[in-house]
Design a protein that fits this description.
alpha+beta; nine-stranded mixed beta sheet; Rossmann fold; about 575 residues; five-stranded mixed beta sheet; 31 strands; BirA Bifunctional Protein, domain 2; about 30% strand; homodimer
Chain lengths: ~575, ~575
């Protein structure tokens, strides 16, 4: 490729609405252009990266036995109504009516359509397993699109769907996809981590997220450096901080804490460690029984320095359908205002659930269920009935790893892939069944597997940039190498050597661009550093006279002289690394 | 590829709603699956063809200097309002509102978006020329989607847009695209013809359609077998059938023709040649002048056996905004009913426009402007004032070619590509200008160039099929060659030779599939004949014992024995043809 026949358009400054570095750099490098909120044109340089990302995904998916097809973007509402997602998805699902008033969804994902395709095609267990995928434009009408390609509305996704005859088959298909994803992200040249994720209704460990590690990542991911335990914050299991409960040392005392409704301020006032306090969170569960709605009071207890994990709360038996109690409900149940609640002496019956750590605390401080007062020296069994115990909190750095093989660390990640054991949720709703060995119909066991193609670009940049611009991993760089001739138009020697080298590099399979735009060296180098091409070779008269070219890797601080004759092998060596 | 790892699903019968052969065969071959009206899933076999079509387009577009980008599918209404197409496009433009009530179009084409991209990027003539393209899903809410991929609602299109500083530059860009299209359709291996098309408001010869020739084609295309003249029916110029007008021989006579309102029945009644009759078509043009609407009567005259060409009518000065006259208007202007109109003796002033052929007729028969009567022996100048003359009719087979180099032939075609000189229509509406050499702003000269990617599949099949199924041209076939082993599972000899041959073919770059599904020969062959793979090689024990394999091309009536050792070269030879 010659730069004069390509379209390069860089900017000194990023537009003011670009909040994060990947968005800023992609705008400055001319890789994307905003068309509307969360909607971007992929400019030629950006599209080249997307195509390389897609090619790697396609190769590995095919290698893993998945079969590519292409499902439509505009999908009939009827299919979405079969699974109930037409209602459930809310305003994120972009809906459209055709000229006859029929309703359609612009696809955010394709579970319904692939299940419809498969239920028309699969009759027998002999046709299984099957795994179909497509790489297609998606639309999600995000409430607040932001961060460029990281949370856009229109984006490209690879989504795959596996179909198996039984659970074991589905788990085998899942493993194949997990391994394919590992191969894909490895080939991208990105630091990534697969973490166990919450699996919603299905349970088990049937869901993993793939995160690109970046300090700017939206998500906290948890791992154990001395074992292979890894999970996202929603799913990471929090162990009790003390394995057993110690004996009580203090008496229960009511102390005045006027205007002190937070654990932090209570600890300050009482001059105690925050870790000695217990935070109380009141929930209400409404149940309908024979047409009558009854309310249950639930109280969750966390150590003062811990954070509630709402996903875990939803998994406590009886709490799948909870909400936070209103101030009126709190007053009625506990006889006080928020900030002074506790497990001792509520006015109405309350189901108390203590986090595992709280369950093993002694002599703790909690609200007295009386405005302006807390209790110190509180102890389970003696002062309060033994609570129900559950894992309710987010883990923190240094917690014991649930596999018992070390302590947990936390880092930031950007979710770019998700593999998920769906089970029979969609196949049952859509009556997608097959005949098993005994001729009996059974619902298909499904898995689904997504990769955010365009999001990969943002994530790769968040992980790889410096003050000059982007630093693409070679496998997904818009070009692997830029040839920068000095005075290409005026020096015959430079032009000849550049063209010769270019031809040799192309023949060797290197994805190379010649910058023949006639820019001065400073401007030329700045463009390519901003765009993030991994290798640069400068062809200049001075060097040529000594038989040399100047090579510089994008992360190198200075250039290296490389003999003209050896340059192609030198680059092939770099690419083979 | 192994068939056991691919998805093949053929049908004995096509669904009853598949009206044309390409639709029927694609459904039967399992290449597409209907999701909704005019909306199809491209199944794995169909997608392989699409990808090959796209790859050829991409290669030739890049070679021609066009630069690929990717514009969004969901496009803000504001851009479409700038050009007025938001209103003009009518219900074919699929419109959608986001959660904030903002309006968007699902792209049917991207003139507005590319012009918006370019007006933000192009400042100077130095940046020109430029040609951007993308290959993207389109949606057009057709009133009556039909014919499978031929007139679908969701489809894939390649659309390119060129930007130049002046008319000459635009025409040069147009020529480059015209040549690229010729290269593309040649590589597809399809019989095609580029024909001049009507250019709407812009005029000149700045528009060509590319048609795949097929007897089932929707469009009539006109060409001269002895010259390079070719045009579509709308644009083909009709020459007068007589170069000069002969002298009058008959007197004007009013004859009774009760209940005879068609030229055919008048000719029958009067026992004359239909070619001696003239058909009259009454139009009304309404003009608003200073708030007052006035009506003009126009009468178009065609020879009795000729067809009106409405595009040509719209180009007659004064008729850009016409409509057919109502029966009341006809009664008022001509004093009679439709079927008895003529250029002689109307009640009100009428502007008469005669087709070129009619203008040179003598002693013709026309309506008498009196119910139940026609005139015979009518002559221009003597009986009627000399009319305005224009080309108003469709050409017919045997007409003189407008280039004077032979006579015209007509064949049927399927439009699969269109190149179009847009001029400054979009750039002026959207204020997309650049600074010329003198620093003066000038609007960009644009061209646009489309190829219906998915439509190519339908068109290729309409041109290439037999009673067994599809016959793909090699360059766009889902697979180039199918290896059909006999008893692959049971004969070690067959399995070994098949696997060895497969490996050699893959190494030689042949796109080959092994049918290892274990079907009986008849069913196996029928599948691949239906799917339309161009080359088949059967590996069987009997042949192997004589050192032979059986080759059969998809159009061959019988198989040829080819020595095992020579098969790869034999196939390479076929592919090189």
């Amino acid at each position: 490729m010659r730069a004069s026949r390509f379209f390069i358009s860089t900017l000194k400054d990023a537009p003011s609405d670009a909040e994060i570095v990947s968005h800023q750099l992609m705008m400055r490098a001319g890789m994307i252009k905003r068309l509307g909120s969360g909607i971007y044109t992929y400019m030629p340089t950006g599209l080249r990266v997307i195509r390389k990302v897609e090619a790697i995904i396609r190769e590995e998916m095919n290698k893993a036995g998945a079969i590519e097809l292409l499902m439509p973007l505009v999908q009939p509402a009827e299919l979405w109504q079969e699974t109930g997602r037409w209602e459930k998805m809310g305003p994120e699902l972009m809906r459209v009516k055709d000229r006859h008033g029929r309703e359609f969804a612009i696809q955010p994902t394709s579970e319904e359509v692939i299940t419809d395709v498969v239920r028309g095609e699969i009759k027998s267990y002999r046709q299984l397993p099957l795994n179909f995928y497509h790489i297609q434009t998606k639309f999600r009408d995000e409430r607040r699109p932001r961060f460029g390609l990281m949370r856009g509305r229109e984006f490209t996704m690879k989504d795959a769907y596996s179909f198996d005859r039984d659970l074991a088959g589905m788990q085998a298909s899942y493993k194949v996809m997990f391994d394919a994803y590992t191969a894909i992200f490895t080939r991208f040249g990105l630091k990534f981590r697969a973490v166990a994720a919450d699996n919603g209704a299905i349970g088990g460990t049937g869901s993993h997220e793939f995160h690109v590690i970046a300090s700017t990542g939206e998500d906290a991911i948890v791992y154990c450096p001395t074992s292979d335990y890894a999970a996202n914050m929603e799913a990471a299991e929090a162990m009790p901080l003390a394995a057993e409960r110690a004996g009580a040392k203090q008496d229960l005392v009511k102390v005045a804490t006027p205007g002190t409704t937070k654990c932090e301020t209570v600890a300050e006032l009482l001059k105690i460690d925050l870790k000695q306090t217990v935070k109380s969170i009141a929930l209400t569960v409404e149940r309908e029984l024979e047409g009558k709605v009854t309310k249950e009071n639930w109280l969750l207890l966390l150590r003062g320095d811990h954070e509630l994990n709402e996903i875990k709360v939803g998994k406590v038996p009886g709490l799948s359908n909870h909400r936070f109690a209103t101030e009126d409900e709190i007053r009625e149940a506990y006889g006080t205002i928020p900030g002074y609640l506790g497990p001792i002496g509520a006015r109405q019956p309350v189901r108390v659930v203590a986090d595992r750590t709280v369950a093993n605390m002694t002599d703790y401080v909690c609200g007295a269920n009386e405005e302006g007062f807390h209790l110190t020296g509180a102890n389970w069994g003696r002062d309060a009935a033994e609570p129900e115990v559950a894992d309710l909190r987010n883990v923190v750095e240094g917690d014991a790893s649930p596999d018992g093989k070390g302590v947990l660390a936390i880092e930031r990640g950007i979710e770019v892939g998700h593999v998920f054991q769906l089970g029979t949720a969609y196949s049952e709703a859509m009556k997608a069944s097959f005949l098993d060995e005994n001729g009996k119909p059974a619902p298909l066991q499904m898995g689904c597997y997504g990769i955010g193609v365009t999001r990969i670009l943002g994530a790769a940049i968040e992980q790889n940039f410096d003050d000059k611009g982007i630093i693409w991993p070679t496998s997904i760089a818009p070009f692997e190498l830029v040839l920068c001739p000095m005075n290409y138009d005026r020096s015959e020697m430079v032009r000849e050597e550049t063209d010769k080298l270019y031809a040799s590099l192309v023949e060797a399979g290197v994805d190379v661009i010649i910058d023949d735009r006639g820019l001065r060296p400073g401007a030329m180098f700045a463009d390519w550093e901003l765009i993030g091409v991994p290798y640069r070779v400068v062809v200049g008269e001075r060097g040529l006279k000594e038989g040399n070219l100047e090579y510089q890797g994008r992360r190198d601080t200075e250039a290296t002289a490389v003999p003209v004759a050896g340059m192609v092998d030198f680059i092939k060596g770099k690419l083979a690394q």
